[in-house]
Amino acid sequence: MTNPFTPSEDGLSLVDSMVQFSFLVHNALNRIGAELDLSIIQIRLLGILRDREPTMQQLAQHLGLDKSSITGLIDRAERRGLVERVVSPHDKRGFLVRLTKLGRQLIEEGEARIVQYLTEMADALSEAERSQFTSLATRMIFSAQPYSR
Amino acid sequence: MTNPFTPSEDGLSLVDSMVQFSFLVHNALNRIGAELDLSIIQIRLLGILRDREPTMQQLAQHLGLDKSSITGLIDRAERRGLVERVVSPHDKRGFLVRLTKLGRQLIEEGEARIVQYLTEMADALSEAERSQFTSLATRMIFSAQPYSR
DNA sequence: TCATTTAGTTTGTCACACAAACTATAATAG
DNA sequence: CTATTATAGTTTGTGTGACAAACTAAATGA
């Protein structure tokens, strides 16, 4: 195996290409987020809220985080006016978390930039190759074991 | 565009598949790292050191971090005995950063597990499809603009 | 009604990232 | 060959993000 964590000049192995591709996309999300003052976890948060109004609990599950992490995440987003806690109609202990107008604008702008950048990135491929890639990646995504050991 | 930040059940768009694939790999690195008490940034650090003895400066560039972040990163790794600072022979201000035996063992074990998991993930594809994927991903990697705006 | 879950917060701890100010050495200009 | 400037790295201060354990208040249910 060649070192998968540093760019070598050519001829990547399968694993190298998977890792480096992942970092490439991840770094792009990072930088695009930074332009809008959003971290990756905040992008994911707002992305989830785009079409959902989950409880804190459900957010924790969606994001794979501890509930105590969600408190802080929502606190900061709420302080910035991106999100609001709405007391749950059927459970006075809980909240529903909802995007504000500002939050919606921000995530829409962010997603637009992400789509643009990633689409440009995929311009290196032909149309046929792009759907090839989509199909191969999708198959790995849906067959992947939720890593355990 | 469908929401790229939450798994939908099927028919991913190109951008969705890129983002989700990236998260899938990233999460795997995270969890595998956690088994060995390594963060992703530490995995990258040790990975770089596998075949290099860079200065702090050069590490900052490799990792795309501020030099002050490197100080802390190396401090923690050194405290754990994974890495050592060696005074640079030609510049008494600087250091070379070097893997210790323990550090080398750890990154080798980590990389082995990463290779294993990602290889399994790619088992969803045939041999021909795997090289397809490698080639497509590699082309995107090497043609990617270092995102600017 | 009393005991137990459940939802979320608080507190404390740590990693990571940055920027600005700082120290010490190196390099360069006069 | 000194005086200035640049460079390498650390320190300090700030903020985000993550976790675990202890806690509060509401809901459930025996």
Question: What report would you give on this structure?
Answer:
Two copies of one chain form a homodimer. By secondary structure, the first copy, chain A, is mostly helical. Chain A has a single domain (15-135), classed as Arc Repressor Mutant, subunit A (Orthogonal Bundle). Chain A is 61% helix and 7% strand. Chain A is built from six helices and two strands, in the order H-H-H-H-E-E-H-H. Chain A has helices spanning 14-35, 40-49, 56-63, 67-79, 101-121, 127-143, and strands at 83-87, 95-99. A two-stranded antiparallel sheet of chain A has the order 1-2. In chain A, helix 1 (14-35) packs antiparallel against helix 5 and helix 3 crosses helix 4 (67-79). Chain A is elongated, with a radius of gyration of 18 Å. The mean pLDDT of chain A is 92. At the A-B interface, helix 1, helix 2, helix 5 and helix 6 of A face helix 1, helix 2, helix 5 and helix 6 of B. Chain A binds a DNA duplex (30 and 30 nucleotides) through helix 4.
Features:
homodimer; 2 strands; DNA-binding; Arc Repressor Mutant, subunit A; two-stranded antiparallel ribbon; mainly alpha; 149 residues
Note the main sheet of chain A: 2 strands, antiparallel
Structural classification of chain A: mainly alpha
What shape does the CA trace of chain A take?
A: elongated
Please state the second-level CATH architecture of chain A: Orthogonal Bundle
Instruction: Report how far apart the termini of chain A are.
Output: 23 Å
Mean pLDDT of chain A: 92
Which stretches of chain A are low in confidence, meaning pLDDT under 50 for 5 or more residues running? none
Q: Strand order, main sheet of chain A: write it out.
A: 1-2
CATH names the topology of chain A as: Arc Repressor Mutant, subunit A
The CATH class designation of chain A is: Mainly Alpha
